[in-house]
Amino acid sequence: MAKSNSSRRLDLHEALSKRSFQNAVICSFTFDPLFFENYCLEKFATLSSNNNISVITDQLTYLKIASAAETECPKQLNLRYLLHPVTVEGRFHPKLFMLTNGTAGRLIVGSANFTRAGLTTNAEVADVFEFDEDDSHEFLPLFKDALQFVAQLARQWPSESLASNLDELQRTTPWLTHETDQAGGHMRLIHNLDHSLWSQLPSFQVGPVENIHVVSRFYDGGPDLIDRVMSDWNPKKLFLYTQNGITTMTPEWLTHPCVRSGRAEILLCTYEDKGYMQPLHAKAIVFESASGSTLTYGSANFTSPALLGSKGKGNVETMMVVPSLRQSDLNPRSFCDPSGSALRLTSQDQLRFTIPERRECGEPRLIDL
Fold this sequence. Notes:
Structural class: alpha+beta
Largest sheet: 8 strands, mixed
CATH topology of the largest domain: Endonuclease, Chain A
Shape: globular
Helix content: 10-25%
CATH superfamily of the largest domain: Endonuclease Chain A
Radius of gyration: 20 Å
Strand order of the largest sheet: 7-15-14-13-8-9-10-16
Number of strands: 16
């Protein structure tokens, strides 16, 4: 899926294969070190000659890697790249890849983890932002937002190795200290380390919201978020797009009064790329109004821990906010359902849902040389 046009396909594999960089910070909830070592470090130009790579991941992912069988243990961890765990009440869930050198940068933000499925087969929504000192400065504020987020992670979950890597990134990326105005159109990268994502979104909206479109695979067990949407935004219609068979939306969502009355519609969709079916992993919300739409996309599913959590409660998430989009820039329906496959869910018999993976708790164990 693409950020603003259903016909625009972003190839993440291609985006990581062009141009060499000196520094990399990768935030990913899931992470496969064998895929990373055996493929990414060899095939991706952005990483192959990169000697300052930091991968920041959820502590549960970290513990699984640390306790893996000998045949599955990474060989280059903390030699070729740093793996740094973050422990939160919910999940450390951002998907953000920042690559820099002395004159250029590439920032990838969206719903895709740094995994084989995230980079190739899943239905994701993401975008690539470029900086070139001699050419394009438009997205420099987004790089600053990303650096501020990563620096705050390093302060709240410190390690000497991560601090050293970030110091090296800033030392070798002088353009990140350039003074600049806010990004054109007030596009921003936001996070919820200080305030919930939900509380930050109204500042980007101009005019009353008429319709809200949500695309997400993961939902709460109950439909309380519908009440929050109606009380805070009061849209005429709420459209919830998901994929049958893998969604975590339960039959209880069908019992909500707004769903029963038709004010909220649940739409089952299929996603494909060049004829191949894709598992939905995208997360986005479109706030549609008469003056234009505001698009939000990133790591946050339509769940309470993702959207309402902050200050150590719930998940850690990142989200791009793109306000003031015209109809020619973004058609909410075709964006959320690019193949036009939506089937309205009207009966519990139609719904096939999955149970979310249970989260196991544990303290992270640092992996030493």
